[in-house]
Specification:
The protein has 337 residues and is an alpha/beta fold. The protein has two domains: 8-242, TIM Barrel (Alpha-Beta Barrel), CATH 3.20.20; 255-323. The chain contains 15 helices and eleven strands. Strands 3, 4, 5, 6, 7, 8, 9, 10 and 11 form a nine-stranded parallel beta sheet that branches. Strands 1-2 form a two-stranded antiparallel ribbon. Helix 1 (24-32) packs antiparallel against helix 11 (255-272) and helix 7 packs parallel to helix 8 (185-191). The longest helix is centred in the last third of the chain and has 18 residues, at 255-272.
Length: 337
Amino acid sequence: MKIAHISLPAQPLFLAPMEDITDPSFRAICKAQGADVMYTEFISADGLIRDGEKSVRKLDIFDRERPIGIQIYGHITGAMVEAARIAEKAAPELIDINFGCPVKKIANRGAGAGMLKDVPLMVEMTRAIVDAVNVPVTVKTRLGWDDDTKNIVETAERLQDTGISAITIHGRTRAQMYRGSADWTLIGEVRNNQRMKIPVIGNGDIDSPVKAKEMFDRYGVDGIMIGRASVGRPWIFRETSVFLETGQLLPEPTVSEKADIALLHLEKSLEFKHGKIAVYEMRRHFSNYFKGLPHFRETRLRLLTATDVDEIKMIIEEIRNRWGDFRTDDKTSVYGT
């Protein structure tokens, strides 16, 4: 599969852009675990234009991550064009436009999924960005604003006509937020629309290799984007890649293997952030890395409240020493059959 000139595997897997999650440390882990395409955290156009420290820092990308896209969001066309030009200077393979974020502070300002209430403006903004930069532009969006405006088939056609190189569709409306189940039927309609010539990437509720294969087979999407299911479980990319290629379901990593990944993730996070910030932002990952261990509440609380890096490493080693080769998908050794 290709996005513009970028060659990818036949069934590529994309790491979804997620605020405060897809930083360089997490991207490094997911890349090592088999993700084919990375995206940065989404970046405010206004923040880039004002040279805001947090926004500018998100432009840091590395050769080991490639191909990588920088995702931007905003509600004013001129600001988005200027932000796209700034992002282009960081030399990503892609500029991605966020028309899908549902959170109130973004959507209610008309940015992210808020753009779904004004498709003509969405199209105008996209065309302006495509014309302004020399790298491929992609879009991530949703089915519509609500159940009464699921107009993604027409919207995708109009966005394609602006010159974008691919579109990612999350199978929910903005009104749904992340509730209920993702509806892939309309994603399939977009992919199988004879007018669509660009790759269509599906997103939503992909939490297993079997689910990924089902969506590829049933709806014919060109790629699959994985988001929340990768948090604390970055090996989902490796498991899915192997299953798509061979039909083999890999065993879940042992607790000892998860400890190795968690420690590497912490080390990478400390490379890019000050100690306390790295520790605080790693907590959501730590909470998920060891999810499913029985009688784990006390140890989990220690792990999530510790602020000293050496203490955190010691707790992870304690988890390794206690659980070792145990796999959380095999409860029989602990609970009985």
